[in-house]
């Protein structure tokens, strides 16, 4: 029986250009630009010689139907005004710099008979992959505006025409495509290609910023002089409150969870707010709520020493929940001691005491919220109720925080959900990670600390690089456990620079701003 002929399947291939492609590329560029303005064989060979990995072709059933050329260039040259001939070395790609930190898009051509197959889009994607693989700052080029000559009388100037395209009031065959591919305008280049009559010689100076880099000027910078890790492992302890007989018993429980987190190679371990109220179960005497808190504050030196020693011994950064601490002026503040594995101790105070803390314990709020520089980048701390005030998280994010830690203590589910929902909002609006750690269990006989409701969790922004529901990990409510999650800092950079929404970029500074008031010492 005769075999059936296999069904014919068209084959489209994107690959790196090679010297054997030069004759076809000469024909392709002549077809697009006319023989006079097409690329010569010398130009094409020169481009491949200077930067072979930056030249791509699209081949359809053995025929080259698309081509793009790139080279590396330094930022000062790339972002300054220039012409095509100047920056490309007359089309030779001879200004390629092997250590250049930007990728320059010298050329993209698509055969007219094959438009509509998204060949240009494939070539743009190849450029972006090359840029991110090489860890360059971005892609820059001069983009044609072929609709300008036909519409110059209507708009009066190139600037007005381009603005109309950017605002979506006008469509330009080339510029609209480039804007839809996440390129942004940084200026207008005059006499870029004088022979481009459709564009009246103009080009739009366009850039695409590598979303995997953190230090772009239009997003909050990360003020760290160290190379940040690709991934940070965080642990959150859902801690059960139980009666104890001594500080040593408390220390044993804290060390147990620190040891577990370290065994799993966590970079951070977080404990809940007011974890040290457990120490009040040691006392047998009847004390008023205010007297109880002042009594508890006497443990401050031991608490700081415990967390600091554990951080160094177990090589882990500890977010030590919070501990009521008497200030030199007699006020009681709710303080989180952050003990880093380099031995340093940082104090972060709760800014917003709850009505219950103020009325029952006479706790007052702190005055500042600063980030803490760690070996995993800047972090911020918001103690429980602080997470319900968006100004705090925004202030920390503007300082460069990538991860916000929220030690919390809530007695009923409604209170817990206020913290949970607000923390999720903080993660979304600031495009950062938020780690919650809470108490569970009961502690009879301790004023204002009778019952606990907690469900610790590790939250993410809501976008494609992250967990489906914006939850990297969460616990079963009201049981003692430890959560772990690996948080990729690269994903934050990608979301902040090129996410489906870009909350940090899109703020209206022309309409509103938040200013933190410096307060005199108390």
From TrEMBL:
Organism: Dyella ginsengisoli
CDD domains for this protein: NAT_SF, nitrilase_Rim1_like
Domain N-acetyltransferase: 12-190
Entry-linked InterPro entries: Acyl_CoA_acyltransferase, C-N_Hydrolase, C-N_Hydrolase_sf, GNAT_dom
Pfam families reported for this sequence: Acetyltransf_1, CN_hydrolase
Highest taxon listed in the record's lineage: Bacteria
This protein's name: GNAT family N-acetyltransferase
PANTHER family the record matches: HYDROLASE YHCX, NITRILASE-RELATED
Chain ranges passing through the membrane: none
Annotated CN hydrolase domain residues: 232-489
């Amino acid at each position: 029986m005769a075999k059936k002929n296999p069904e014919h399947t068209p084959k489209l291939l994107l690959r790196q250009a090679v010297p054997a492609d030069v004759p076809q590329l000469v024909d392709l560029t002549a077809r697009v630009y006319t023989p006079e303005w097409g690329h010569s064989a010398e130009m094409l060979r020169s481009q491949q010689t200077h930067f072979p990995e930056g030249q791509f072709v699209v081949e359809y059933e053995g025929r080259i139907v698309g081509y793009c050329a790139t080279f590396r260039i330094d930022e000062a040259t790339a972002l300054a005004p220039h012409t095509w001939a100047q920056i490309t070395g007359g089309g030779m790609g001879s200004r390629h710099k092997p250590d250049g930190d930007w990728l320059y898009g010298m050329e993209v051509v698509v055969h007219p008979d094959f438009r509509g197959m998204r060949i240009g889009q494939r070539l743009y994607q190849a450029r972006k992959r090359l840029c991110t693989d090489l860890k360059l700052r971005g892609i820059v080029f001069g983009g044609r505006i072929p609709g300008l000559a036909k519409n110059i009388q209507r708009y009066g100037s190139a600037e007005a025409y381009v603005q109309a395209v950017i605002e979506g009031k006008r469509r330009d065959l080339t510029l609209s495509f480039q804007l839809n591919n996440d390129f942004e305008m940084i200026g207008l280049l005059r006499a870029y290609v004088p022979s481009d009559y459709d564009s009246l010689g103009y080009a739009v100076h366009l850039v695409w910023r590598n979303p995997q880099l953190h230090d772009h000027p239009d997003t909050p910078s990360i003020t760290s002089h160290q190379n940040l890790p690709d991934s940070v492992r965080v642990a959150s302890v859902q801690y059960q409150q139980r009666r104890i007989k001594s500080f040593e018993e408390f220390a044993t429980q804290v060390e147990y969870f620190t040891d577990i987190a370290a065994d799993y190679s966590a970079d951070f371990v977080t404990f809940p707010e007011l974890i040290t109220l457990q120490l009040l179960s040691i006392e047998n005497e009847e004390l008023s709520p205010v007297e109880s808190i002042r009594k508890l504050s006497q443990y401050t030196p031991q608490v700081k020493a415990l967390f600091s020693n554990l951080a160094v011994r177990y090589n882990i950064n500890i977010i030590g929940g919070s501990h009521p601490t008497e200030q030199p002026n007699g006020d009681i503040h709710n303080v989180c001691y952050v003990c880093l594995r380099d031995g340093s101790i940082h104090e972060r105070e709760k800014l917003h005491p709850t009505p219950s803390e103020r009325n029952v314990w006479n706790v007052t709020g702190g005055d500042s919220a600063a980030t803490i520089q760690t070996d995993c980048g800047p972090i911020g701390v918001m103690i429980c109720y602080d997470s319900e005030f968006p100004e705090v998280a925004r202030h920390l994010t503007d300082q460069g925080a990538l991860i916000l830690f929220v030690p919390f203590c809530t007695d009923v589910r409604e209170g817990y959900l206020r913290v949970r929902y607000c923390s999720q909002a903080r993660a979304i609006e600031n495009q950062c990670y938020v780690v919650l750690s809470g108490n569970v269990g009961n502690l009879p006989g301790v004023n204002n600390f009778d019952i606990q409701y907690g469900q610790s969790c590790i939250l993410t922004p809501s976008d494609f690089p992250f967990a489906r529901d914006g939850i990297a990990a969460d616990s079963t409510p009201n049981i003692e456990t430890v959560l772990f999650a690996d948080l990729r800092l690269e994903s934050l950079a990608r979301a902040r620079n090129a996410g489906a929404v870009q909350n940090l970029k899109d703020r209206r500074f022309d309409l509103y701003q938040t200013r933190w008031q410096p307060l005199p010492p108390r």
